Structure formats: structure tokens, C-alpha cells
Amino acid sequence: MAVQRPLPYATPETRPFWGYTKQHELRMQKCLDCGHIRWPAGMFCPKCLSDKSEWVKLSGKGSVYTFGITHYIYDKWYTDKVPYVVAVIELAEGPHMMGNVTGFKHEDIKVGSPVEIYFDDANEEFSLPTWRPPK
Questions:
Q1: Rounded distance, CA 118 to CA 130, Å?
Q2: What pLDDT score was predicted for residue 1?
Q3: How far apart are CA 116 and CA 124, in angstroms?
């Protein structure tokens, strides 16, 4: 029996985000009252408490804010994938989000390293935002 890959849980608030990633688009909610771009998605803006927002397309560019290199196998699916890099990415538009980083030699990744998004098609439901050096 094949080992199942760990996947996110889509809530009513995050379902649009996952729908966009399946189309290989990075979109986040932007408050229609104050302009704040927020992640994670939610019903209210954390800056002004407005309930008015729209999903806006982001550039998919950012930089490594902080990172860790994981050597421990937390789930059987990762058995042949360690070590791997998990990072917090500071998006060009401001929000921070977590994801895997690939394409760097581990000794070359640094805080501030520029990255761009690509989408890892995990299954028919989820495409996971993943990061790599810009092409």
C-alpha cells in the first residue's frame, strides 16, 4: 500500500485559495476598505475588521524570511525526502507564508535569498505553493 502524502485541510475561508493554487495562481484576500493583503484567509480584515475583501493575484515573488533544514522524518511520506527546507517566505506584496524551498544547495540558502513560486501538483485536489530560486 502506498503511503499517503500529508495534505492541507481546506476550510470554507481557504477553499478559494486552494482553488486558485490548483490553477497555478497565488491569490490572497485584499481588504476592500483598507487595502491590507492578508494571509491566512479569514472572514475579517485583521487591520480594520472589515468583512469586505476580494481575491487578488500576487506576483509569486519573495524572499526567504527564515528557514530550517529538516532532517527528521515526521511522516512516512518524507522517508526518502529528508533533508528538506521549510521556510517562511516574505512575499513582494508583504504577507508571509510558509512552504518548502527547492533548487538551492542547502549551504547556499540564506535569509534574504530571492525566491519565486511554483506549484507542486500533489493530487487532483491540491497544488502546493513551493519556492525556488528565480529563473
A1: 5
A2: 67
A3: 23
pLDDT at 3: 82
Those residues whose C-beta lies under 8 Å from the C-beta of residue 131, and which sit 6 or more positions away, are: 62, 64, 87, 89, 99, 100, 101, 102, 115, 116, 117, 118
pLDDT tens for 31-76 read 999 999 999 999 999 999 999 999 999 999 999 999 999 999 999 9
Q: Distance between CA atoms of 31 and 4, rounded to whole angstroms? A: 36
Model pTM above 0.85: yes
User: How far apart, in whole angstroms, are the C-alpha atoms of residue 122 and residue 1?
Assistant: 18
Residue in the block written with cell 516574505: 90
CATH among 1.10.101.10, 2.40.300.10, 3.40.50.2300, 2.40.50.840 for 59-135: 2.40.50.840
Q: Phi and psi (nearest 5°) for 85?
A: -105, 130
Q: Where are the domains of the chain?
A: 12-58, 59-135
Record the cell numbers describing residue 55, joined without a space: 481575491
Residue 2 confidence (pLDDT): 75
**How much is the average pLDDT of 127-134?**
98
